[in-house]
Write a structure and sequence with these properties.
Layout: E1 12-22, E2 41-50, E3 53-59, H1 60-64, H2 67-71, E4 76-80, E5 85-88, E6 90-92, H3 104-111, H4 116-121, H5 130-135, H6 138-153, E7 157-163, H7 170-186, E8 190-198, H8 209-226, E9 232-237, H9 244-256, E10 260-265, E11 283-286, H10 295-299, E12 304-307, H11 309-314, H12 323-328, E13 333-335, H13 349-360, H14 364-371, H15 373-378, E14 396-399, H16 406-409, E15 416-421, E16 424-426, H17 428-433
Parallel strand pairs: 1-4, 1-5, 6-7, 7-8, 8-9, 9-10, 10-11, 11-12, 12-13
Antiparallel strand pairs: 1-2, 2-3, 5-14, 14-15, 15-16
Helix pairs in contact: 6-7, 7-8, 8-9, 13-14
The protein binds zinc ion (ZN).
Length: about 425
C-alpha cells in the first residue's frame, strides 16, 4: 500500500471549487459550549497544500492569489472539488484494531438476550480475542491493523489512535504495539499508539490482581516506553475490569516513564472520578454513566470527554452518553468509533456522527467539531490536526454532498470521495474497487 509519490509529481496540491469548506478555524481550542457548533464555513473555497502543510485557505480568489502559488503554478496539481464538501480529516481518537477475528458468538448471544457482562463471564468478551492475538505474529496482526486503517480512511479518517489490549502478557502487548507500528509505516496518515495492558485481568491472574498490575507497571509500561512503542497508557476502569485506585497506580507508572494517560470510564455503570484528573488524562472515554457531581469538575479541566455511541448502539443498550448535559456544562466533547470486535465493529466516523445527532441530540455542526478539532485535542495533536488553517497538516476529507449536514444524514452509506493526507490525495475506496 503506497501513496502517490512519483519523483516528477507536482510539489503542491490546490483543491478548488469547494462548495463548502468546513475550516473549524479559530482560537478557541478545545471547543466548549456554544462554540462547539461554530464551523467557520467558507463557500466556493480553495485550499493550497505544500510540503505536507496547508499554505493558504480562503475563497477561491483569495487562495489562488497566494504569492507562492503565482510563482510556482506549474508545480501545482489541481483537484477540482466542484459540488463537494471538504472538512478537516476526521481524528478517530479511540480504536482497538489489534485483533484477528470478529466475535460472532458474542453477537448472537447478545441478540438472544445475554448482556455484555454475562457474555464475558461465559468466556466471550475481551478475553475472547486474546488467543487469536497470542497465536499471531506481529506481521500477521499488522495486516489486520492495516486493513482497519484503510477502512477508516475510506470514510474520512486521517488520524487514528490505536490501542493494544488483547495480548495481556508483556510479550503479547508489546507485539500488539509493534503491529501498530508496522501498520503505521504503511499508512500515510498519523497514528498515536496506546498501551492498554490494563484492559481486563487475563485468566491466569484472576486471583492475583496485584500481581497483574505490577506486571503492567513494572514491565509493560517501562518496556513500551523504552522501545518508544506507545504515546499513551490507557486503563479500562469498570466493574469486572479495574478500579479507579488501580488506575491511579498505573497512571503513576505511565507518568514516571514519560507517557500520557487516558481511560475508559463509566461505560457500563457509575463510578467516581476520585483523583483521576490529577494525572491530567488527555481524555476520559465513554462516560455513559458519568455522575452529575463530576460534570463541573470535568468541565473545569483540560481533559476531553470522548463519547463512543457506536458501542451503545451495537450492544443494544439504551443509555447513550449525556452529550447535551456535558456540552451545556462546558465539557470539551469529542467523538470516536471505539472500533473493536466486541462492542463497536465500525470504522465509520460518519456513522458515529449520525448516532451523535439522532441519539444524543448533538447538532451536525457540533458532531463535526467533536470529530475533528476536539478529537485532535484528545490526542494532544491540536497544533497539527483538526482544522483547516495555514501551518496545519494538510489532512482533509472530501465528501460527495452539497451540505455538511448530509454527512451525518445519509447514515449507513459512504459519501466520502477521498481524503488528502499530508497534501497528497489518498483514495482507498478506489483502490479497493480497482
Ligand atoms: Zn475502548
Amino acid at each position: 500500500m503506497t501513496t502517490r509519490r512519483k519523483d516528477d509529481a507536482p510539489s503542491a496540491l490546490l483543491l478548488t471549487n469547494i462548495r463548502q469548506l468546513v475550516t473549524l478555524r479559530g482560537e478557541s481550542v478545545p471547543r466548549r459550549g456554544p462554540e462547539l457548533g461554530q464551523l467557520g464555513i467558507i463557500e466556493d473555497a480553495a485550499v493550497l497544500c505544500s510540503g505536507g502543510k496547508i499554505v493558504a485557505v480562503g475563497s477561491k480568489d483569495e487562495a489562488t492569489s497566494d504569492d507562492w502559488l503565482k510563482a510556482h503554478k506549474r508545480d501545482v496539481a489541481e483537484l477540482d472539488c466542484s459540488g463537494a464538501v471538504v472538512v478537516p480529516g476526521f481524528v478517530d481518537s479511540h480504536t482497538h484494531p489489534v485483533f484477528t477475528a470478529p466475535r460472532l458468538n458474542d453477537f448472537e448471544q447478545r441478540i438472544a438476550g445475554s448482556d455484555y457482562e454475562t457474555v464475558a463471564e461465559k468466556g466471550g468478551g475481551i478475553r475472547g480475542s486474546v488467543s487469536g492475538v497470542r497465536e499471531a505474529t506481529a506481521e500477521e496482526l499488522a495486516a489486520h491493523v492495516s486493513r482497519a486503517f484503510a477502512q477508516m480512511s475510506a470514510q474520512g479518517t486521517t488520524t487514528i489512535e490505536a490501542k493494544s489490549g488483547y495480548g495481556l502478557t508483556v510479550k503479547d502487548e508489546l507485539k500488539s504495539l509493534e503491529a501498530i507500528d508496522i501498520a503505521e509505516k504503511e499508512f500515510p496518515g498519523t497514528v498515536r499508539s496506546t498501551l492498554l495492558g490494563a484492559h481486563v485481568l487475563p485468566k491466569d491472574y484472576l486471583d492475583d490482581r496485584e500481581g497483574y498490575i505490577r506486571l503492567v507497571c513494572e514491565k509493560m509500561i517501562p518496556q513500551a516506553a523504552e522501545r518508544d512503542l506507545a504515546h499513551f497508557v490507557d486503563v479500562f476502569i469498570e466493574r469486572g475490569a479495574f478500579t479507579v485506585e488501580e488506575a491511579e497506580h498505573i497512571f503513576t507508572a505511565a507518568w514516571e516513564h514519560g507517557l500520557g494517560v487516558r481511560a475508559h470510564f463509566c461505560q457500563l455503570g457509575k463510578n467516581e472520578l476520585g483523583d483521576l484528573l490529577k494525572f491530567g488524562p488527555a481524555s476520559l472515554d465513554h462516560l455513559d454513566f458519568i455522575r452529575n457531581d463530576d460534570v463541573p469538575t470535568l468541565a473545569a479541566s483540560n481533559t476531553i470527554a470522548t463519547l463512543l455511541p457506536g458501542a451503545v448502539y451495537f450492544l443494544g443498550r439504551s443509555q447513550y452518553p449525556p452529550a447535551r448535559k456535558l456540552i451545556d456544562a462546558g465539557v470539551a466533547v469529542a467523538l470516536a468509533t471505539d472500533f473493536n470486535p466486541g462492542s463497536s465493529p465500525t470504522a465509520s466516523m460518519p456513522m458515529v456522527l449520525s448516532l451523535a445527532c439522532t441519539q444524543m441530540r448533538m447538532s451536525p455542526a457540533e458532531a463535526i467539531a467533536a470529530a475533528t478539532i476536539n478529537a485532535a485535542c484528545a490526542l494532544r495533536l491540536q497544533e497539527r490536526k483538526g482544522s483547516v488553517e495555514p501551518g496545519k497538516d494538510a489532512d482533509l476529507a472530501i465528501f460527495d454532498v452539497d451540505d455538511y449536514r448530509e454527512i451525518p444524514y445519509w447514515f449507513g452509506g459512504n459519501r466520502c470521495a477521498g481524503v488528502v493526507i499530508g497534501g497528497e490525495l489518498y483514495q482507498p475506496n478506489l483502490r479497493a474497487a480497482g
